[in-house]
Amino acid sequence: MPDIFNAALELPRIPIGQWAEGFVDWLENNLGPLLDFATNATTWAFDELSGLLTWPAPVVVTALCAVLAFVVRGWGFALFTLLGLALVASLGYFEPMMQTTALVLIASLVAIVVAVPIGILAARNRAVSQVVRPVLDLMQTLPPFVYLIPAVILFSIGATPGLLSTVVFALPPAVRLTELGIRQVDPEMVEAGQAFGAPPRQVLTGIQLPLAMPSIMAGVNQVIMLSLSMVVIAGMVGMPGLGQSIYEAVTRNQIGPGAESGLSVVILAIFLDRLTSSFGAGKGLLSRLRKPLSATSR
Amino acid sequence: MATVRAQNVYKLFGRNTKNAVRDLQNGTARDELRDRGITPAVIDVSFEARPGETFVVMGLSGSGKSTLIRTLNGLLTPTSGSVFVNDEDITRMSAKQIRHMRQNTMSMVFQHFALFPHRTIRQNVAYGLRIRGVPEDTLLDRANESLALVGLAGWENHYPRQLSGGMQQRVGLARALATETDVLLMDEAFSALDPLIRRDMQDQLISLQRELAKTIVFITHDLNEAMRLGDRIAIMRAGEIVQLGTTKEILDAPADSYVAEFVQDVDRSRVLTAGAVAEQAHTVRLDEPPQQALKVMRGNELTEVFVVDFDDRLVGSVAYAEATLAAERDQGQVGASVNRGAPTAQRSTPIVELFEVAADSGAPVAVLDADHRLLGAISRAALLRALGKAHVDATAGGAAKRTGEATDA
């Protein structure tokens, strides 16, 4: 009697786990060349970019970054950059930091290239928006370890699975902020474009995108920050850089190297954040230079 | 020149609006449609803005006037009915044809200016031409000309945020004028400006319109503005036109209590023009004998009469005493005793400007067109009558007809 009762209460088990395994197997068996291509492409891009960033002496790169900081934001930021990067170099974490920078830049670039067009589509089409939103929610809430496992199976250990996970994790805000930015453009502006006979594409490129730029750039900034927050997790699957240094320090219980490499991540994060948040906000020398230029040249 | 004609235009928002239009036509109450989740914004609106006319649509917020103006250039498609621009039905046009029509025939000025903050003033003004594909150097020259027209030469390289509200809207106007389209849609164009600037802008529009003679459809919630600017005015309430007529027609005979309530607040002396209140002028021709002038004066109980030349142009006036003297001396022509200092006014002069003249000289004010032709005269009595509320007399029809003809020209 109780057995029957229990059996009746028991829900049938839905084998989602098996499906996921089957799906990953299928990917592995059928998309081999594509996966290989992705691995090769990301490895190549990573090697080239980190090679470029570590090719000059750390002092030279530090100086160049300080100049960039001055142009974009001003003296204070330049000074911070100079001291911060010099500190990292003196600690001996300059190469891993440049590797991390390279990975963050590649991941952000991929994320933005994918996210901005999706954001534009979502802003223009309610149906797209309604499909995209839950997918983004899923991407943001799914613990990164969950897709790290199949990523390693598909791409093996190295830069690629970490990079892919980073893209998945960092992409949503860029889509959301692009969509939001375009939706927030004053409808009268869009009407003005239409009233003068501008076709949809010109309304998009001439009015909506420029006016949504601060929001889109905030998305870019978010992407970069989220990419950075993934470095340790990505480091666990063999992505080179500061993440790996931290992971090693954690597994070996080394407090000193952990603190040093952690500080390096913080310095890099502040540098990249201040750098990219300036683009949309229109402060700093860059935008001050750009304005009079566009005024006279056009 | 272009005409814009709305023919039985309906615009409903909500679901299944086509059926709802049929229901409305069959007498379903508007509230019932609201309960079904349908908002009727424009209901069975028909009018024609004639070439060179300033046609004003006046209504409070929610009366459907902004929706209506957006159906005129296809920003909104009517649920039912047609909009004809130069006799072409834009509701049947493809998206591409509509764009072509907007580029070449119609431009628009917006309530909140809708200037592009990331473009310079010159680039804003050149926008319509750029969309049309006008070559770069022509386009910049035209933008500069257009800015000069609205009095903003020298501001070309500034950005919109550096300008005051009034200046920004002049840029908006310049942007619309730069395309040299025949039709200008103005959606509450001056409503966001403070009263003094608004007056300036109205004056500027009136003087520009005198020069350019565009077909203007102007939306406003301010009846004073409507009557200052409009050759004819359509008053909208809850999506329908409740009255359509000239300023004087609406002032003299409000269609219902709703319109009457609005009219109460109108400063008649500022919105009524000399042309609108002018009565038939009694004239003699230059070469006619003084006896003829006396006869006209006696016949109409006047103390003086206007003297015109062979083209109806005003020469001056002749008073009873002088005409009598001339008749006694047996002068052949009345022209010899003309007093050339007769007070005059332009057709578009608001009558508030005539009070002082009328007070100083007892003589009627002659109303002239641009060619100095005599259109009519305003006596002190006519001036007072125009200010009175219920003013219906035999000459009103004639005078209204006269302004009607004048604005059609």
Summarize the structure.
The complex is a heterodimer of chains A (298) and B (409). With 298 residues, chain A is an all-alpha fold. In chain A, 87% of the residues lie in helices and 0% in strands.
Observed structural traits:
heterodimer, A: 298 residues, mainly alpha, MetI-like fold, 15 helices, globular, disordered C terminus, B: 409 residues, alpha/beta, Rossmann fold, CBS-domain, 2 domains, 6-stranded mixed beta sheet, 4-stranded antiparallel beta sheet, 19 helices, 16 strands, 41% helix, 22% strand
Explained architecture:
Chain A: Keywords: Cell membrane, Membrane, Transmembrane, Transmembrane helix, Transport. With about 300 residues, chain A is mainly alpha-helical. Helices cover about 85% and strands about 0% of the residues of chain A. Chain A is built from 15 helices and no strands. Chain A has helices spanning about 1-10, 15-30, 30-55, 60-70, 75-90, 95-125, 125-140, 145-155, 160-185, 185-195, 200-230, 230-235, 240-250, 255-280, 285-295. In chain A, helix 3 (about 30-55) crosses helix 9 and helix 10 runs antiparallel to helix 11 (about 200-230). With about 400 residues, chain B is α/β, with parallel strands linked by helices. Chain B folds into two domains: about 5-115 and about 180-265, Rossmann fold, CATH 3.40.50; about 275-390, CBS-domain. Helices cover about 40% and strands about 20% of the residues of chain B. Chain B has helices at about 15-25, 30-35, 65-70, 95-105, 120-125, 125-130, 135-150, 165-180, 195-210, 225-230, 245-250, 255-265, 270, 275, 290-300, 320-330, 355-360, 380-385, 395-409, and strands at about 5-15, 40-50, 55-60, 80-85, 90, 105-110, 185, 215-220, 230-235, 240-245, 285, 305-310, 315-320, 345, 365-370, 375-380. In chain B, helix 7 crosses helix 8 (about 165-180). Chain B starts with a strand and ends with a helix. Classes of the chains: A mainly alpha (about 300), B alpha/beta (about 400). The interface of A and B includes residues 186, 193, 199, 294 and 298 of A.
